[in-house]
Every structure is written in C-alpha cells, then in structure tokens.
User: Fold this.
Amino acid sequence: MKAEYRKGCLQRDSVEREGYAGARSIETRESRERDGANDLLERILDRHNLNRAYKQVRSNHGAPGIDGMTVEGALPWLQENRDGLLQRIREGSYKPSPVRRKEIPKPDGSGVRKLGIPTVVDRVIQQAIAQQLQPMFEPLFSDGSYGYRPGRSAQQAIRKVKAYAEQGYGYAVEIDLSKYFDTLNHELLLNLLREQIQDNRVIELIKKYLKSGVMENGIRRATEEGSPQGGPLSPLLANIYLNEYDQEMESRGVTVIRYADDIVVLAKSKRAAIRLLETSRAYLEQKLKLQMNTQKSRVVSVVAQKHFKFLGFALGKNGSGVYIRVHRQSLAKAKKKLKELTSRSQGRKARQVMENVKVYIRGWIGYFYVADMKRILQSWNEWLRRRMRMYIWKQWKKPRTKVQNLRKLGIPGWQAYQWGNSRLGYWRIAGSAVLNRSVTNEKLAQAGYYDFPAQYERLRLLHSSG
Assistant:
C-alpha cells in the first residue's frame, strides 16, 4: 500500500512539474514576444543607429530648422544632451519642434511646392526611425514602386515604362495628386503602421512628428493631416500610404509604375485606360481620402510626341522601336538654366562660369543619360561654346584690349584692328570665323570648358548593360 501511495505521489509531482514547466514555457515565449514587440524603439535609439543617422543627415547638407541650429552645431549639442534626449523619448515626454515652412518654385512653373524643414535634432531622430522601418516595409512594397527605395531609381522606372510600351501597352493614365504629401490622412496612415509595428512607443513618436505643426511667418499652425516634405521620414511614410493603391491595382492585374506620387497606369487600349482612370480616382479618393487633380490627370498615348511625360522623360517611336527621350519641357528648362549660367552681365571670371556650367550639366546628364539625346547635346555644345566666346568678348571690354588679345591669339594686326573696333553685336561676333580661330575649342578646353557630349557617351556605355 505504501509503495502504491509513493508511486501515486511521484506521478502527481511529475504531472505538476510538467504543467509548471509548460506554463513557464508559455510565459517565457509571451515575454519574448513582448520584448520583441517593444525593442524596436531600442533599436532606433541604439548608438550605432543614431551615429549612422547623424552621418546621413550631415551628408545631405540641409538647412537649419526653426531653432537655427546647423548640422555642424548639432553634433556637440547631441553629445552633451544625448542621455536626457533618449530618456525623454523612451518615457514619451519628448515633443518634436514644428517644421519651418519653405516654398520653392515647381519645375513646371505651375506654382510653389511647400517644404517643411525639421530641426537637425528631429531630422536625426526621423532618420534613425526610417533606417529601422525601411527593412520592415521594403518586402511589402510593390515591384512597380521606384521612388525613395534602395537600389531603385527614376531611370529604372522610365525603362520599365519603355519595356511595357514595347509589349503593346500603348496608353497611359497619368495620375496627378493634389498636394499629396500635405493631405495624407493621419488615422489611415497610423493604422497601416500598426499592422507591422507592435512597439506602441514608436507609433506614438511618429504620431508626434505628424502632429508637430508648421511654423510660418512666426505663427505655429497645427497639422491635422499630411507629412510635410523635407523630413527624412516623409518619403517612407508616403510610400507606405500609397502602397495600398499599388497592391489593390496589382490584385486586379493592373500595371502601375509609381515614383513617390508620380503615377502612371498602363493599358493596351484607350477604352481600358479611360476605365482605369475612373477606378483609380474612386479608390484614391474614397479609400485613401486623397484628391486627384482632374485637370492634370488624363489618358494619353505613351509614345505621343507632345503629351506623355513621366519624371521629366518622354517616349518616342521610330523604325527601330520605342526609345526614351527627354521631354521638351525638361529641355527648355535646362536651356534656360544654361542661359542664366552664361549670362554675360554677371561679372564672374570666364573660368568660374565654365565651372558652374560643368557642375550643372554633369548633374543633368547624370539624371537623363538613359534618354537618346546625342544630337541635342552636340548642338548644345556648339551653342555653349559660342556663349562662352561671347562672354569672353564682353570681358575684354575696350576696343584696344580686344585688338591686343586678338593679336596675341594669332590674328593678323589689320584684322584684329577691324574686329576689335567692330560695332556688331556680341552674339554675332561670337559666331564669327575670327573668334573661332582665336578662342579655339582647344583653348576653351584648356580654360576649363567641359565637353559634355563625351561624358554622355561614357555614361551610356557604362550603363549599357543595365
């Protein structure tokens, strides 16, 4: 009897131990899940993550926010106040500063784009948040989304449109959203974030940035909607928001190419494109509470010479097939800028003018290199050389100086005297044989003139496999 009693006790103890161990296992797992849900903020505030964030903000060379603190001035402040700042963020008492309103003209001249410039400290915190959220959301984004994503670019986006055009997608719905960044619905956005972020402290911190307000003309204005352009977090939040549209269209088998709020929906017939324009409007306005600009949103032929425009590019068609070109408005804007840079009334040295042209044209070609524009650049090259000869001719000012310089450059005395005292206009003289023989292409190159058609060819060759 005693043996049976002891055996029963041992069995009961074993069951109790197993139950206790099981309960502890469940508790430990739940604890790990809680810790995993709550460690996102700690990863954001990790020293290495914050250091990387500061370096990124510094490399962007941004302007100060409302406190006037520069990027360089922020470093000693952060080093001195780091512990207190992180403590306030952890306990939820940190309040971001309002952003500083700045207006810049839109490229197409249709008005101004309103930017919101956060303080440098807030930019560092936002950048630290973005660095941790980007890898979480990146796998969720559509393959047709190209803006503000690692390893993706505007050049890839237009090449993708070209590829679809070659497959028979001859019509495009150009969707223009009115003040997109300023009209994001906060409640919808925060709900989308909650689907992936379990650490509620991060949600609350992002909410504070969305609600931080805007300082304009010395007056703080509350922000009940939108995520002002200018902060490191805004592009990611904008992508998360419009990813809902991307995924909805993808589920319907619709082809969408999007770069931030620049959206193109492709179709094989005009009738289908018209239908997609309406379904897109309904979804964007009813589901996402955005406003589509009905005057600028339209259906166009993808290869239309004057109509289709995407990210400054256009498409054309010839006997060889579809090709990428620079849109005429982008060409006009660039030529206007080059005229300003080579204006003969600015009083700078010719070498400095040529350096300014070099910096601008390098950046411009670096963006548009995927377009076929060899002939255009060759024509601009000759035009710019003439502009520089005109600039140099004006800098010589007095007839006597002009005569002396022409003679130094190998022009016979009688001819130098004749042209040095000429009353012809600057542009006409700049195109004369005399100035071409004296201020030669080689001499311009020695003075710093940039042969940009050659740079274009090098870039095309470098990226030909892309």
